[in-house]
Every structure is written in structure tokens, then in C-alpha cells.
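Review form for a predicted model. The reviewer records the input and the model, then writes brief findings.
Reviewer: anonymous (R2)
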Amino acid sequence: MRVILAQPRGFCAGVVRAIDIVERALDKYQAPVYVRHEIVHNRRVVEDLKAKGAIFVEEIDQVPDSAHVVFSAHGVSRSVVKAAASRSLPVLDATCPLVSKVHAQAKRYVRQGRSLILIGHAGHPEVEGTIGQIDAPVTLISTPEEVAGVDFPADAPLAYVTQTTLSVDDTKAVIQALKRRFSNILGPDTTDICYATQHRQSAVREMCKLADVILVVGAKNSSNSNRLREIGLEEGLPSYLIDDAAALDPTWLEGKHSIGLTAGASAPEALIQEVIETLKILGATTVEPMDGVEENIEFRLPAELRA
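Model under review:
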């Protein structure tokens, strides 16, 4: 039994930046530092930061006066920004720059007088943050079928943006449906799907040509991790999303010779290595890294943490 290891996998630049912001804030300002929402969607990351002195909260009113607060990588609504500013809380914004880019695009379209459509999943923190950044109504859809229910005239001036962690193929289908129905609509094709999401999805598709079963290391509430599992299923392979090695069911491997292993963009490499060690115990004899994109993107930290 062999393990085929996807390349790239695991942490992206936005996740690295967000974690660095919390760790450097703890070094500079000392514990506790408060973080609104999970900094990224991974329990191991959150627990490690808690052990270093980070305190995670869901609302700004849970942050004590004068305490430093970090906004998560998913971005926040303007109401959250205003709530922190009204109390003069010192804020470090860990919003992924690619999410901030979506916010800027959406605002520009609205300033042009266009009604905005957001392609994304209801309830996801990134979607809630994006909607909360726009001073205008936003229509949220996630599937091509929902386009028929979008209540605008066929020639209305419209624009769309997308959640950064969606399936590239699914998003293309939604965009095509929008363009078929509306004659005056602008948007960025799939360029709002972040580079890391696209790279990991492409790697899984290639891995499916070689594997008998797909394992994705990632949290159940991680959008990009769920998309990786769905790609495996679309390719006809049994595919499983696991938090860590303890969640691995040996029966999934029965009769399998090639195990494809990848990880979502918020899963640390340590979790992947732990899964590999468990797979070796269960009979894997070789680990074969795939050829793939080498990511070398880095995002700048806030100015007060760069020293």
C-alpha cells in the first residue's frame, strides 16, 4: 500500500499570515490577545494559539477594554470594525488580502451603480463579512439553479463577486448561468477563487488519476477542505474529510493499494505527518510526493508587527 502526497497541500499564505499575526501580537503585547472567531478553521491551530495565550471570542463585546483584538482571516463586517472603533480597541486585521480584494471589488461595483450578486455559501464567515462590508443590498446565490430566482430585469446593471474558497468548476457554472440570463453583468470570472484553492483542487484532480481512495485533512467547517473531498467524490473515488489521524477508519483502506492524501489550506503539516505515520502502521510502505506547483507567495504583516 502506497501513499500519494498532493502538492501543494496545507497552509496557504493567508493562513500563515493570520497565524503569524496572532503569535507576533502575543510576543509584542503579551497574553492575552483576543481573536474574534477562529483565526482559521482548524482545531489544532486554535488550540495551539490558546496554549500561547490567545482568547477566542465571537463578538467584540466579549473583549475587555484596551485589550488587543485580532480579526480572523475570513474578514469581518463593517459593523464589527465600528464596534471595535467605538471602544478604541487596538485592532490587528488578519483578513486574508485576497478576501480584502473581493471587498474592494464589490465596493467598486456598487459605486458604479450596479446591484451586487455574491456567489458563496450562506453562513460562512467570509460571506457574512463580505455582505457586511457593502452599503447596499447583496443577493447571495451558490448554485446555477438559483440564478433563475434572482429578481432583476434581464438588462439590469449587475455585478458579481465570489467567496474565495469555492469549487472552481462549480463557480464557473454559476457565472455562465448569470451571463446567459443577464446582458449587463460584470465580474472577475473565477479570479476571485484564491490561488491556493485553485492549486489544491487541481492537485486533487491529478491525484485521483493515481489513487484508490482520497483522504483530506481538514476541519468539517473548512469550506476549501470540503471542496477537496467533493472533487474526489466527483471523480468517482471514496473520499473522506478527517480532522486528524484519530479520525482515520482502517476499513476505508481495505482492498486499497494507493491512498491519495491532501490537506485544506488551514491544516498544519504536522497533522498530515501524523496521518502518514498512522497509515504506515496500517500497512503503507511508501510515501510518494506528487509533482506540483511550488507556492512561494508571502503576504505582508501589519506595519506594527513587521519589526
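Findings: Residues 13-29 form the longest helix (17 residues).
Further findings: The longest strand covers residues 258-263.
Recommendation: see findings above.
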